[in-house]
Amino acid sequence: MTSYLAPAPQPSVRVRAPGKVNLSLRVGPVQEDGFHPLVTIFQAVALYEEVTATQVPVGAGISIAVDGPQADRVPLDETNLAWRAAEALARHTGVEPDVALHVTKGVPVAGGMAGGSADAAATLVACDALWETGLPRAELAVVAAGLGSDVPFALLGHTAVGTGRGDLLTPAMTRGEFHWVFAVSDDGLSTPEVYRRFDELTAGQARDVELADEAPLMHALRAGDPHALGAALHNDLEPAALSLRPELERTLTLAREGGALGAVVSGSGPTVAALARSRQHALAIAATWTAEGAADTVWCTTAPAHGARLLT
Ligand code: ATP
Fold this sequence. Notes:
Blueprint (H helix, E strand, L loop, with lengths): L11 E16 L10 E17 L7 E6 L13 H13 L5 E6 L10 H16 L6 H9 L5 H6 L2 E5 L4 E4 L6 E7 L6 H12 L12 H9 L2 H7 L1 E2 L2 H7 L3 H10 L4 E4 L6 E5 L2 H13 L5 E7 L5 E3 L1
Parallel strand pairs: 1-8, 3-4
Antiparallel strand pairs: 1-2, 1-12, 2-4, 2-5, 5-6, 7-10, 7-11, 9-10
The chain binds adenosine-5'-triphosphate (ATP).
Adenosine-5'-triphosphate binds next to helix 1 and helix 2.
């Protein structure tokens, strides 16, 4: 009699990391190194990227597969931020970069909501567990900052103040839950292009950024007051995004006419974020955007959400 033993499944690790909305984004004048100093308040939203890292034979290298909405717009080579994160962690820890990555997109692509950064953060946590490299979060955050300004926040989650390039983070105190609705465009905006337009519009003379300007917003967060938060939403990149996509003005107006507590372009756009009073109200704004053809898709969610976390 012959017995057949199925091959044991390869060990794998699954991690979830959130997208974000910038409650406020203040952008200073471009510096000699080409970067802009920022003061921003990030809030993680409950739209998640999921990354599964699976062990592969030694020497197999990195591979990546992507599914979920808009997956066809994501690169499958070494330019993918998840791939770069695995490479960076391997380099940092001296292990061989051998892993199969599977990314399930849950955050709009090129929508100013840092979906790629969430993939990078999730990959760092997943590979750290799979390769048993055991880096403390603070060290993972250093590797994260080398991958992009938004990656450290996707590790941390919740709500945080970002300074420097947005990568120097201080957690912010918040109370309660906020209801968000996002108008997402199939046609993304390139973040560098939005910054270039910002430089043109401000003629390189943007006002210096001040943390003190965020006092009303921080107070609204501490009080858990969505009305005050809505009034304090701010984005210095909004004029640049609107000049590249004038139709977003109507999306903002429709949200305000629908009673949104505040509406703002999310990060570098073209996603528009509206703060609603409740889930019902968020759905009503979403219905208006859909009926008026103001968005290709609408996404309702809550915030704040947790940072990159292992799923058991
Ligand atoms: P950010 O606000 O952080 O600048 P974003 O949210 O506007 O980014 P992403 O979805 O993170 O945009 O990605 C922007 C571009 O980066 C995409 O158009 C894609 O070509 C490329 N990219 C690289 N890796 C990824 C990834 N894992 N997921 C999505 N896009 C990726």
